[in-house]
Amino acid sequence: MELGTVVPFTTMQGAVSRNMVESLAVPTFRVGYTITTDALDALYKKIKSKGVTMTALLAKATALALVKHPVVNSSCRDGKSFTYNSSINIAVAVAMDGGLITPVLQDADKVDIYSLSRKWKELVDKARAKQLQPHEYTTGTFTLSNLGMFGVDRFDAILPPGTGAIMAVGASQPTVVATKDGRIGMKSQMQVNVTADHRVIYGADLASFLQTLAKIIEDPKDLTF
To answer: Per the database record, which ranges form the 2-oxoacid dehydrogenase acyltransferase catalytic domain (predicted)?
Structure first.
């Protein structure tokens, strides 16, 4: 690209631009949480050879936590009422050439981790080939944005219009921690930061959702059922 040139938005950049401006109308707030990932990392190592992706594990953990906190999976469109969504559809942000798209893992709480991983690979391939159908990227009820693979430790995400919350996921990093009995140990920890619509979701809702999510990730046996 020649420096100094003016470049019109692509269709995708135009859509992102409209959504970002629309999201400014929603009063949002953010709550962060640090989660120990040693058990999740060990599980991932064990089942990675069967085609399981870390994205699918995070989506599944998030979906199982949302089952217990339906208000965090709700949405408000008119400012006068809100909807408890009947499905838990986890949208995951994917960087594309010249933009961003959020393929959706439908019913992520109900689909097993192996099928979810296969579905995710299929969605990413379709996204890269620009072949996603609208229902494959517009039906998310909760969004994940993960910059951990770039070594980012924490960030804020912008709430997609028509949804209640989005979770920004940072890198899992070895951390020196003090144990309850006063000893020093090493644990891998990641920071997550949820941005939510404060018209519907309050601080205590997000805090209890994040506690549930941390419990699931720190003892991930339910992820492989």
So the answer is: 5-223
Counting as low any pLDDT under 50, the low residues of the chain are none
Residue with tokens 């949820």: 194
Tell whether pTM > 0.90: yes
CA distance 48 to 77: 39
